[in-house]
Protein backbone atom coordinates (compact mmCIF):
# COMPACT_ATOMS: atom_id res chain seq x y z
CA UNK A 1 0.00 0.00 0.00
CA UNK A 2 1.29 3.43 -0.81
CA UNK A 3 1.78 5.86 2.02
CA UNK A 4 -0.81 8.60 2.28
CA UNK A 5 0.50 12.00 3.20
CA UNK A 6 -1.39 13.34 6.19
CA UNK A 7 -2.75 16.76 5.26
CA UNK A 8 -3.49 19.66 7.54
CA UNK A 9 -7.18 20.46 7.89
CA UNK A 10 -8.55 23.62 9.45
CA UNK A 11 -6.61 25.51 12.10
CA UNK A 12 -8.17 24.60 15.42
CA UNK A 13 -6.04 26.62 17.81
CA UNK A 14 -3.06 28.91 17.66
CA UNK A 15 -1.12 29.26 20.87
CA UNK A 16 2.08 31.07 21.70
CA UNK A 17 4.41 28.30 20.49
CA UNK A 18 2.33 25.93 18.37
CA UNK A 19 -0.58 25.63 15.98
CA UNK A 20 -3.07 22.77 16.17
CA UNK A 21 -4.75 21.59 12.95
CA UNK A 22 -7.56 19.14 12.33
CA UNK A 23 -6.88 16.16 10.04
CA UNK A 24 -9.20 13.93 7.99
CA UNK A 25 -9.31 11.67 11.06
CA UNK A 26 -11.40 13.35 13.78
CA UNK A 27 -9.40 11.72 16.59
CA UNK A 28 -6.06 13.03 15.31
CA UNK A 29 -4.53 16.51 15.15
CA UNK A 30 -1.39 17.90 13.56
CA UNK A 31 0.67 20.08 15.89
CA UNK A 32 3.01 22.56 14.20
CA UNK A 33 5.84 23.95 16.32
CA UNK A 34 6.67 27.62 15.73
CA UNK A 35 9.88 29.61 16.26
CA UNK A 36 7.88 32.20 18.25
CA UNK A 37 8.93 32.65 21.85
CA UNK A 38 7.08 34.53 24.56
CA UNK A 39 7.79 35.16 28.21
CA UNK A 40 6.17 36.94 31.14
CA UNK A 41 2.66 36.08 29.94
CA UNK A 42 3.27 37.25 26.39
CA UNK A 43 4.82 40.62 27.30
CA UNK A 44 8.21 39.68 25.85
CA UNK A 45 8.15 38.28 22.31
CA UNK A 46 10.79 37.17 19.80
CA UNK A 47 11.69 34.50 17.28
CA UNK A 48 14.21 31.86 18.24
CA UNK A 49 15.72 30.49 15.03
CA UNK A 50 15.22 26.75 14.69
CA UNK A 51 13.22 26.47 17.93
CA UNK A 52 10.15 24.91 16.30
CA UNK A 53 12.16 22.13 14.69
CA UNK A 54 14.23 21.57 17.84
CA UNK A 55 11.23 21.38 20.21
CA UNK A 56 9.40 19.12 17.75
CA UNK A 57 12.43 16.81 17.57
CA UNK A 58 12.99 16.75 21.35
CA UNK A 59 9.34 16.00 22.10
CA UNK A 60 9.22 13.39 19.33
CA UNK A 61 12.30 11.70 20.85
CA UNK A 62 11.05 11.75 24.45
CA UNK A 63 7.35 10.86 24.19
CA UNK A 64 7.91 7.36 22.76
CA UNK A 65 10.37 6.70 25.62
CA UNK A 66 7.72 7.77 28.12
CA UNK A 67 5.19 5.48 26.39
CA UNK A 68 7.67 2.62 26.68
CA UNK A 69 7.98 3.43 30.40
CA UNK A 70 4.20 3.02 30.77
CA UNK A 71 3.11 6.67 30.54
CA UNK A 72 0.31 7.17 27.99
CA UNK A 73 0.86 10.21 25.73
CA UNK A 74 -0.87 11.94 22.82
CA UNK A 75 2.12 11.42 20.51
CA UNK A 76 1.60 9.33 17.36
CA UNK A 77 4.44 10.24 14.97
CA UNK A 78 6.74 12.96 13.69
CA UNK A 79 5.50 14.16 10.29
CA UNK A 80 8.10 16.75 9.32
CA UNK A 81 10.75 19.05 10.80
CA UNK A 82 8.13 21.13 12.57
CA UNK A 83 5.03 18.91 12.64
CA UNK A 84 3.83 15.91 14.58
CA UNK A 85 0.67 13.84 14.53
CA UNK A 86 -1.05 13.52 17.92
CA UNK A 87 -4.22 12.12 19.40
CA UNK A 88 -6.87 14.83 19.73
CA UNK A 89 -7.61 15.41 23.39
CA UNK A 90 -9.64 17.77 25.50
CA UNK A 91 -6.95 19.61 27.41
CA UNK A 92 -7.43 19.70 31.18
CA UNK A 93 -7.02 23.44 31.88
CA UNK A 94 -4.59 22.77 34.71
CA UNK A 95 -0.86 23.15 34.10
CA UNK A 96 1.17 20.77 36.20
CA UNK A 97 4.61 21.85 37.39
CA UNK A 98 7.04 19.36 38.89
CA UNK A 99 10.05 20.71 40.75
CA UNK A 100 13.26 18.96 41.78
CA UNK A 101 15.16 22.12 42.67
CA UNK A 102 13.89 25.59 43.66
CA UNK A 103 13.84 28.08 40.77
CA UNK A 104 11.67 30.60 38.97
CA UNK A 105 8.31 31.52 40.50
CA UNK A 106 8.79 29.06 43.39
CA UNK A 107 11.99 30.81 44.46
CA UNK A 108 10.37 34.23 44.13
CA UNK A 109 7.15 33.35 45.95
CA UNK A 110 8.85 31.65 48.89
CA UNK A 111 12.20 33.49 48.90
CA UNK A 112 14.16 30.28 48.48
CA UNK A 113 17.44 30.72 46.60
CA UNK A 114 17.42 29.35 43.07
CA UNK A 115 19.32 26.07 43.02
CA UNK A 116 18.20 24.91 46.48
CA UNK A 117 17.48 21.19 46.13
CA UNK A 118 14.02 20.08 47.33
CA UNK A 119 13.97 17.12 49.72
CA UNK A 120 11.19 15.55 47.65
CA UNK A 121 9.63 16.53 44.33
CA UNK A 122 6.98 19.25 44.54
CA UNK A 123 3.92 19.13 42.26
CA UNK A 124 2.17 22.46 41.71
CA UNK A 125 -0.95 23.30 39.72
CA UNK A 126 -1.82 26.44 37.77
CA UNK A 127 -5.03 27.40 36.01
CA UNK A 128 -4.29 27.51 32.28
CA UNK A 129 -5.46 31.02 31.47
CA UNK A 130 -3.47 33.57 29.47
CA UNK A 131 -5.87 36.30 30.62
CA UNK A 132 -5.06 35.61 34.27
CA UNK A 133 -1.38 34.75 33.78
CA UNK A 134 -1.74 31.05 34.74
CA UNK A 135 -2.37 31.60 38.48
CA UNK A 136 -1.34 29.04 41.08
CA UNK A 137 -4.31 26.95 42.31
CA UNK A 138 -4.83 23.85 44.39
CA UNK A 139 -6.67 20.68 43.40
CA UNK A 140 -9.80 21.63 45.42
CA UNK A 141 -10.17 24.70 43.19
CA UNK A 142 -9.88 22.59 40.02
CA UNK A 143 -12.49 20.09 41.23
CA UNK A 144 -14.80 22.76 42.61
CA UNK A 145 -14.80 24.73 39.36
CA UNK A 146 -15.27 21.59 37.25
CA UNK A 147 -11.90 21.65 35.47
CA UNK A 148 -11.10 18.06 36.45
CA UNK A 149 -12.42 15.33 38.70
CA UNK A 150 -10.69 14.14 41.82
CA UNK A 151 -9.83 10.88 40.01
CA UNK A 152 -8.41 12.81 37.04
CA UNK A 153 -6.17 14.82 39.36
CA UNK A 154 -5.02 11.76 41.24
CA UNK A 155 -4.04 10.14 37.94
CA UNK A 156 -2.42 13.37 36.68
CA UNK A 157 -0.25 13.64 39.80
CA UNK A 158 0.76 9.97 39.54
CA UNK A 159 1.69 10.37 35.85
CA UNK A 160 3.53 13.66 36.48
CA UNK A 161 5.71 11.98 39.10
CA UNK A 162 6.30 9.03 36.77
CA UNK A 163 7.45 11.48 34.09
CA UNK A 164 9.79 13.02 36.66
CA UNK A 165 11.14 9.64 37.72
CA UNK A 166 11.88 8.79 34.10
CA UNK A 167 13.25 12.13 32.93
CA UNK A 168 15.48 13.06 35.89
CA UNK A 169 17.98 10.20 35.38
CA UNK A 170 17.50 10.35 31.59
CA UNK A 171 18.79 13.92 31.49
CA UNK A 172 21.44 13.41 34.16
CA UNK A 173 22.94 10.66 32.01
CA UNK A 174 23.20 13.34 29.31
CA UNK A 175 24.93 15.83 31.58
CA UNK A 176 21.78 17.83 32.38
CA UNK A 177 20.11 18.55 35.72
CA UNK A 178 16.31 18.62 35.34
CA UNK A 179 15.40 21.48 37.69
CA UNK A 180 11.66 21.70 37.00
CA UNK A 181 9.14 21.26 34.18
CA UNK A 182 5.56 21.99 33.14
CA UNK A 183 3.18 19.37 31.77
CA UNK A 184 -0.29 19.46 30.22
CA UNK A 185 -2.64 16.51 30.27
CA UNK A 186 -5.67 15.79 28.12
CA UNK A 187 -8.60 13.41 28.01
CA UNK A 188 -9.30 11.04 25.16
CA UNK A 189 -12.95 10.42 24.26
CA UNK A 190 -12.62 7.17 26.25
CA UNK A 191 -11.96 9.28 29.35
CA UNK A 192 -8.34 8.14 29.59
CA UNK A 193 -5.90 10.81 30.79
CA UNK A 194 -2.81 11.13 28.59
CA UNK A 195 0.24 13.40 28.61
CA UNK A 196 -0.26 16.04 25.89
CA UNK A 197 1.54 19.19 24.70
CA UNK A 198 5.36 19.16 24.70
CA UNK A 199 8.51 18.58 26.72
CA UNK A 200 11.23 20.95 25.53
CA UNK A 201 13.56 23.76 26.63
CA UNK A 202 10.44 25.99 26.46
CA UNK A 203 8.74 23.97 29.21
CA UNK A 204 11.61 22.65 31.35
CA UNK A 205 14.53 24.14 33.26
CA UNK A 206 17.71 22.37 32.23
CA UNK A 207 21.04 23.17 33.90
CA UNK A 208 24.34 21.77 32.70
CA UNK A 209 25.45 19.23 35.30
CA UNK A 210 29.10 20.38 35.21
CA UNK A 211 28.68 24.16 35.12
CA UNK A 212 25.03 24.81 36.12
CA UNK A 213 24.76 26.86 32.93
CA UNK A 214 21.12 27.38 31.93
CA UNK A 215 20.16 25.44 28.78
CA UNK A 216 16.51 26.47 28.43
CA UNK A 217 14.07 29.33 27.92
CA UNK A 218 15.49 31.23 30.91
CA UNK A 219 18.30 32.28 28.52
CA UNK A 220 15.58 34.16 26.57
CA UNK A 221 13.58 35.34 29.62
CA UNK A 222 16.69 36.72 31.33
CA UNK A 223 18.56 37.98 28.22
CA UNK A 224 21.51 35.66 28.80
CA UNK A 225 22.27 35.26 25.08
CA UNK A 226 23.15 32.02 23.30
CA UNK A 227 19.50 30.95 23.19
CA UNK A 228 19.68 29.14 19.83
CA UNK A 229 22.92 27.38 20.80
CA UNK A 230 21.46 26.15 24.09
CA UNK A 231 18.37 24.71 22.36
CA UNK A 232 20.52 23.03 19.70
CA UNK A 233 22.80 21.57 22.38
CA UNK A 234 19.77 20.17 24.25
CA UNK A 235 18.60 18.41 21.08
CA UNK A 236 22.11 17.02 20.60
CA UNK A 237 22.23 15.69 24.15
CA UNK A 238 18.75 14.12 23.90
CA UNK A 239 19.38 12.42 20.57
CA UNK A 240 23.04 11.46 21.02
CA UNK A 241 22.30 9.34 24.02
CA UNK A 242 23.96 8.86 27.35
CA UNK A 243 27.41 7.60 26.33
CA UNK A 244 29.79 10.62 26.31
CA UNK A 245 28.35 12.41 29.28
CA UNK A 246 28.52 9.54 31.76
CA UNK A 247 32.09 8.68 30.76
CA UNK A 248 33.68 11.89 31.95
N1 LIG B 1 -3.23 16.52 21.74
C1 LIG B 1 -3.77 17.74 21.84
N2 LIG B 1 -5.07 17.95 21.55
C2 LIG B 1 -5.62 19.18 21.67
N3 LIG B 1 -4.95 20.28 22.07
C3 LIG B 1 -3.66 20.14 22.39
C4 LIG B 1 -3.00 18.87 22.30
N4 LIG B 1 -1.71 19.02 22.72
C5 LIG B 1 -1.58 20.33 23.04
N5 LIG B 1 -2.73 21.01 22.85
C6 LIG B 1 -2.99 22.45 23.08
O1 LIG B 1 -2.52 23.17 21.96
C7 LIG B 1 -2.01 24.41 22.36
C8 LIG B 1 -0.55 24.38 21.99
O2 LIG B 1 -0.08 25.57 21.69
P1 LIG B 1 0.87 26.44 22.59
O3 LIG B 1 1.37 27.39 21.60
O4 LIG B 1 1.82 25.68 23.41
O5 LIG B 1 -0.26 27.08 23.53
P2 LIG B 1 -0.14 28.07 24.76
O6 LIG B 1 0.03 29.42 24.18
O7 LIG B 1 -1.47 27.87 25.44
O8 LIG B 1 1.02 27.57 25.58
C9 LIG B 1 -2.16 24.49 23.88
O9 LIG B 1 -3.35 25.16 24.23
C10 LIG B 1 -2.28 23.03 24.27
O10 LIG B 1 -3.01 22.89 25.45
MG1 LIG C 1 2.38 26.11 25.42
From TrEMBL:
Biological process per Gene Ontology, one example term: 'de novo' IMP biosynthetic process
Keywords: ATP-binding, Ligase, Nucleotide-binding, Purine biosynthesis
EC numbers for this chain: 6.3.2.6
Known pathway: Purine metabolism; IMP biosynthesis via de novo pathway; 5-amino-1-(5-phospho-D-ribosyl)imidazole-4-carboxamide from 5-amino-1-(5-phospho-D-ribosyl)imidazole-4-carboxylate: step 1/2
Residue ranges of every copy of the SAICAR synthetase/ADE2 N-terminal domain listed in the record: 12-237
Domain of life: Bacteria
InterPro entries: SAICAR_synt/ADE2_N, SAICAR_synt_PurC, SAICAR_synth, SAICAR_synthetase, SAICAR_synthetase_CS
NCBIfam families reported in the protein's UniProt record: purC
Name listed for the protein in its UniProt record: Phosphoribosylaminoimidazole-succinocarboxamide synthase
UniProt source species: Deinococcus ruber
Gene: purC
Amino acid sequence: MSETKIERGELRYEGKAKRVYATATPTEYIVEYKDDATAFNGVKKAQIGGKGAINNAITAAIYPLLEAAGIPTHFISKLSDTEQLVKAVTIVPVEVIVRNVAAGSFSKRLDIAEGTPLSRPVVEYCYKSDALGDPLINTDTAVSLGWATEDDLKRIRELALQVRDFLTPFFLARGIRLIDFKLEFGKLSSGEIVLADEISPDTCRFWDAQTNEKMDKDRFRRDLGGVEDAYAEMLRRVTQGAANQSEN
